Amino acid sequence: MMDQVRALARKAVSEFGETARFLAGVAAVWLVLVTFGFAAFHIPSESMQPALQVGDRVLVSKFTYGYSRHSLPLGIGYALPDSWSGRVLGSVPNRGDVIVVRDPGQNINIIKRVIGLPGDTVELRDGRLILNGEMVHREPQGVVRYRDRSGVQVQASVYTEELPGTSGYTIYERSDNHPLDNIGPFQVPANRLFLMGDNRDASADSREPGGLGYVHTDHVVGKAFTVLFTFASCREEEGLHCPPWRVWRGL
Length: 251
Known about the structure:
- This protein is α+β, with helices and mostly antiparallel strands.
- It contains one helix and 15 strands, in the order αβββββββββββββββ.
- Strands 1, 2, 3, 4, 12, 13, 14 and 15 form an eight-stranded antiparallel beta sheet that branches. A four-stranded antiparallel beta sheet has the order 7-6-5-11, with no helix packed on it. A three-stranded antiparallel beta sheet has the order 8-9-10, with no helix packed on it.
């Protein structure tokens, strides 16, 4: 009888060890993947509408621009000394890229679009984006009405904006007289980026006095390139835009 008990105990210990090794292997693969490959981020705000809606889960490539302490998962990088700065295999994002960066002021990750690169001059006049002295082309696409997160009805003009070297992206403008619609010029310093949200009058970004400011390239986490899926939903109302469920949709 005792021999049977011992055999069962040895079998249980062996099976537990195999399970633990399997789980450790899975964890190791996950850690490597989210450190060097891809990570998913949740969209909490309306600042990137219509490209990204509240509730979207966005897949972000970490290898596109290289690696820094901000690439490490689970907040590991923020436990490292400040001297662990810089990037490995680093490269500068392109204008028009949608990127995730670390906001050192709030100590959170945020997502915005790259508007200005090092050396660029950025300004806005009556809602029109001016890059290096040239007004960026925008094409009206109509008007959209929707409810914001607080439930208030919002009406915005829809435009396609085309930065140099891009095929165009969609922006919302509630008006061309918002405080941030007449601001600048900003001269983007070396190793910095100028970022803006696509929902121009509902975005705290590099235009905001005392806000995000110029973002150091070392604070880039990665490039957002697709919406994995969304749990967001809204109540269908006549005359109001209600974004559909989205799965694996490119940006």
